[in-house]
Amino acid sequence: MDLNLTQTEARFRDEFRAWLALNLPPEWTGNISGEDRAEYLRYLRDWQLKLFEGGWAGISWPREFGGRGASLMEQAIFQEELASANAPPLIGTIGLSLVGPTIIALGTPEQKARYLAPILSGEEIWCQGFSEPNAGSDLASLNTKAVRDGDDFIINGQKIWTSFAQHADWCLQLVRTDARAPKHKGITCLLVDMRSEGLSVKPLRQMSGDSGFNEMFFSNVRVPVSQVLGEVNGGWTTAITALMNERANLGTGSQVLFKRNLETLIKRARTFPRNGKPASEDPLVRQKLAQAYLELEILRLNTNRALTSLSKTGVPGPEGSIQKLYWSEWNQRTQQTAQEIFGAYGQLSDFDRGMWQYGYLRSRGNTIEAGTSEIQRNIIAERVLGLPKSY
Amino acid sequence: MEFDLSKPQKLLKDSAREFLSRHCKPTRVRELMSTETANDDELWQAMADQGWTGLVIPEEYGGLGAELLDLAVVCEEMGNACLPGAFQATVFSSALIDRAASPKQKAQYLETIASGSLKATVAQLEETADWDLDAINLKAVRDNGRLLVSGRKLFVPDAAAADLLICVAASDSGNREAPVILPISKGADGVEIKSMPAMDETHKIYEVQFNNVSVNAVDVFGADGNARGALEQATQVATVALCAEMVGGMQWILDTTVEYAKTRHQFGRPIGSFQAVQHQCADMLLMTESARSATYYAAWAVTEGAPNAGMAVSIAKAYCSDAFREVGNRGVQVHGGIGFTWEHDLQLYYKRSKAAETIFGDATFHRERIARAVVDGD
Asked: Is residue B2, in this structure, part of any structural domain at all?
């Protein structure tokens, strides 16, 4: 056991840190927001292009496909450094972490040649068309249909909760191609052009006010058969490959953001009054802040243990479920602690630029998105503890 | 970075499990807990022969000079087996002797602890039951080259089994920074030991009354002025060992509960197929693994002498204190009525979680320590 970085890991961190110091213009590190503004999107695309030109896009990908073949530990360091430098988010994150690795694993030579490079450069943004109004936790019950017509599939149906759909050029999409087969065996994965005729996107506004998700409507959308990723009716395997890659990313970047958020809260509690004294002197507030701090530290330790284990087995396992369950519930508890500290002020959108109001509301979605806490607990119970399936 | 036990540590852990499964079966645990001291001399010697009593004692004093994490994995298996007796108390004592005693004293005590012929305990808590060193009031009064102690210590673990009592007293100078650490042999004049009626019968605790007990000043530990630092460091070692024992207890409860959920049938199905039960078990796993991460990290940080070692220990104890109790609660809940019986071994672990919760400070105590470091800032 040695929790220090190895020489190679330290060199990697230093190299990326130095690159960031040179290439992340200071005016970019502020709190630029406004997800729908064209200017903001251009800025995000430029940022990914810059990373790509520096050789820092898709670092986990094998070198032959333009990556660095970075180890899991290096990927974690990469995420931490990005977050520590307050770098903008990666607009192509679904392509980089989910679609790209799946195409590398299951794509045809033509698909690899066509799609991988623009994912790295950020030229083409991807979204992931999985969930449907009646297929959320029970993803395999999806029923957006694709019917074979000559060299095309014709898609009809609806997707929902699709992040980035409003900006995306392509969609990794699950459709039902055999309605009579058992539900896991009639699904196919398609690479769909978001500019296809008959495809429309409608942003969904969240309770936090922003629109991270979308609905997608498909009305006789034609997709050539050559766009199948994996096997026809073998789409469930493709989906699992994609989701495993998603969960292998253990959220190391968001932990840095959580840490920064907690530090801001603690700093703020030192001046915000409670019963005539700074809130930070209130014994209950101190207990809650200390609990948030120690739990976040344990999240980091759990992550490092999981990364070590993943590095040895090479197979993403249920570790991701434990991580997801932990951080999503931690964030909700901590946002509630912030609300308790600020009392009536916490709810205001003009108090501390609305960060506590937004943080509280946004955290509500954490235990639902990317697999609810209930689904994560099912996965832990069945796949780690070996309990019998409940459904 | 590598956050995992080394191969030798995994082997050590496996061999400890195997050893305890033979020498410390649940029936033996119950036999021992019904004795006055819950101590088994034969088992103690066998553990000493395995090297366990000397694991973190330096080689020059007859120990193995191993890392704290090595001790932690052994303690984890002891916790899993619900090993009764004075091992934890002796770990605290040997860590304190190693840090506070002179080379001559170390040779005298550590070699006998490592060989298995000496058990020891530390008498620290008083009426306030406060683990803060500043709460120690019992004074060691200087008198002609001797120190005299009169007063009472409470919640002293395994005092009846211990051959050596280490009494932590306050200096009669009133200097709180300089506690006095007094080795007192079992049977010394003026020492009275009385059992306290504790919940956990596998780790006995005692009230120790000192009536004008006299210790030669040259025998006192930490005479060179490092007593407080030595106590703080030894407490870190002992806290990690205790956390590891707690993790082992959590693992036992988790394994036993999952096994039960797979075999117990209601409504024609194993109860483990119901999500309400599955989710309890999933939470137990999350708590157990998180407690383990925190404990292993604290062990590593203490061994490395990391600047945040004290913080790492507080994080581990705060988390383990809450988690062990909560894992116990979930475990009993999933078992239903049978888990509430005297007959089922769950009760042993359930009670131990309550006892361990407060030793070296409960979660509230350690959260306040964490708050002083991170909420108060510089």
From this structure: no
B113 within a domain of the structure (yes/no): yes
- Put simply, the answer to whether A381 touches B274 (Cβ < 8 Å) is no
Q: What is the DSSP string of A373-387?
A: HHHHHHHIIIIIS-P
What one-letter code names the amino acid at A118?
P
Which of helix, strand or coil describes residue A87?
coil
Catalytic member of A80, A81, A132, A246? A246
Residue-range definition of the domain harbouring residue B159: 121-219
ipTM: 0.97
| pLDDT tens, residue order, chain B (378 aa) | 999 999 999 999 999 999 999 999 999 999 999 999 999 999 999 999 999 999 999 999 999 999 999 999 999 999 999 999 999 999 999 999 999 999 999 999 999 999 999 999 999 999 999 999 999 999 999 999 999 999 999 999 999 999 999 999 999 988 888 899 999 998 999 999 999 999 999 999 999 999 999 999 999 998 878 899 999 999 999 999 999 999 999 999 999 999 999 999 999 999 999 999 999 999 999 999 999 999 999 999 999 999 999 999 999 999 999 999 999 999 999 999 999 999 999 999 999 999 999 999 999 999 999 999 999 976
| Residues A225, A291 share a domain | no
- Judged by CB atoms closer than 8 Å, whether chains meet at A381 and B286 is answered as no
Cα–Cα separations (whole angstroms), residue B358 to B124, B205, B291, B363: 14, 13, 16, 8
Instruction: Give B-chain residues touching A297 at CB under 8 angstroms.
Output: 294, 315
Q: Classify residue B1: in a domain, yes or no.
A: no
Q: Does B370 touch chain A (CB under 8 A)?
A: yes
Distance (Å, whole) CA B287 – CA B250: 9
The number of domains in chain B is 3
pLDDT for A8-40, tens place per residue? Answer: 999 999 999 999 999 987 766 445 555 456 788
Residue of chain A with shortest Cα separation from B259: A387
**Does A109 reside within a domain?**
no
Q: Is B269 on the interface with A (CB under 8 A)?
A: yes
CA distance, residue A19 to nearest chain B CA (Å): 22
The C-alpha of A18 sits at a distance from chain B's nearest C-alpha, in angstroms, of 21
- Considering only alpha carbons, which residue of chain B is nearest residue A376? B282
The distance of A10 to chain B (nearest Cα, Å) reads 10
- Chain A within 8 Å of B255 (Cβ-Cβ)? no
For A91-144, how does the pLDDT look when each residue is reduced to its tens digit (9 = 90+)? 899 999 999 999 999 999 999 999 999 999 999 999 999 999 999 989 999 999
Judge if A258 and A378 occupy the same domain. yes
B144 touches chain A (CB under 8 A): no
Give Cβ neighbours of residue A291 (< 8 Å, ≥ 6 apart). B318, B367
Give the integer Cα–Cα distance in Å for A259 and A256: 5
Contact A274, B358 (CB under 8 A): no
Q: Give me the total of CB pairs closer than 8 Å, taking one residue from chain A and one from chain B.
A: 151
Residue type, A117: A
Residues of A within 8 A of B262 (CB-CB) are: 386-388
Of A1, A290, A374, the CB nearest to B69: A1
Supply the pTM of this predicted model: 0.95
Cβ within 8 Å, pair A290-B278: no
